[in-house]
């Protein structure tokens, strides 16, 4: 049976560039109103989705729940079909923990967005809610955000005599056809007390698929962007900075660790003394590494031709359609894409929510993901180490351990000097 012609009502919080909602919309959940404070993201939404109403005011901390519901056309508490969104993930990010030894997490001002999301659940009592965040939100022993969610839902259940049941699932997007190794946590709650279950993976590694007859092999970077591979590119995609000349000496699928005592190149760095995305390159025959939102001049993933990825390539690796446009310059568009949920995952979750929570016979047909290609060429040949890096060769100390990054040392020195 096809999806209902009348889409279910949704409110989108922290909409960003619209990746999650693009997928949910395709699954039958039409945004009645979008709340997004970033001006460039709002321009991107307007350009691609002129029929998606945007909240006024656009700041979740400034708009009242009454105004939000009025703009969404909600006539009564409990009538909203789906509340969705991904509060800013920086308070729970792995990179912050690696560098600084810990992060502020719930004490980070940006974590107030999580409480704002819970406040809207409390006032709207949606039939289903969906929240996306980084894997670090559910780290054992550092899952304060997740525990806050469970405690708050328990209070909401008691206060309103409802029976929200919550499930959190960890998704590697590559397992569902996204040509990118991207791990995220999704929290799904339903007011009718039905627990959400993640469907079986549709894609697996080559080694795994022999045990799963219905699974397909991971889609790769070449599958997604191989047709865009050219010998020449614009100057804006050239890598600059101190380490630009080192990138061509690193093989496909590797990062700076190639040039450590444990790699196959020259010993230029201590093991794990840089974050994993430093000088990180794509491999044609594998899924992309995680597309990040805030890249520096040496932060990958980079193209296998030792250049930056174009905006269209980044968008494809996130499963955005080619006609999707992003407002702003290169860094602005990169940030919007890196912060987004792949539309393919939004679509998958939307279909599953309709099937599991609304008891609809909604058939899942893979959308947004690339087709498998059979013309993948061999890896690019790496280049010799330029002379300007020769002086770095030698013995280098390794990283002291998890949570003991450079930020820890800096804080200790500051506190010691203050004493």
Task: Supply database-style keywords.
single chain; 419 residues; alpha/beta; Rossmann fold; six-stranded mixed sheet; two-stranded parallel ribbon; 11 helices; 27% helix; elongated
Report the end-to-end length measured between terminal Cα atoms.
Answer: 71 Å
Low-confidence stretches: 102-106
Query: CATH class of the domain at 8-206 and 342-357, please?
Result: Alpha Beta
Structural class: alpha/beta
Strand percentage lies at 5-15%
Please write the string of helix (H) and strand (E) elements.
EHEHHEHHEHEEEEHHHHH
Strand order of the largest sheet: 2-1-3-4-6-5
User: What name goes with the CATH superfamily of the domain at 8-206 and 342-357?
Assistant: Vaccinia Virus protein VP39
Q: Please, what is the average pLDDT?
A: 89
CATH A-level architecture of the domain at 8-206 and 342-357: 3-Layer(aba) Sandwich
Structural description of this entry:
The protein has 419 residues and is of the alpha/beta class. The chain has a domain at 8-206 and 342-357: Vaccinia Virus protein VP39 (Rossmann fold), CATH 3.40.50. It has 11 helices and 8 strands. The protein has helices spanning 19-26, 39-48, 65-72, 94-100, 112-124, 144-160, 221-225, 311-317, 330-339, 343-357, 406-418; strands spanning 8-13, 29-35, 82-85, 128-134, 165-172, 183-190, 203-204, 216-217. The strands form 2 sheets. It has a 6-stranded mixed beta sheet with strand order 2-1-3-4-6-5, sandwiched between helices. The radius of gyration is 23 Å and the shape is elongated. It starts with 7 loop residues before the first strand and ends with a helix.
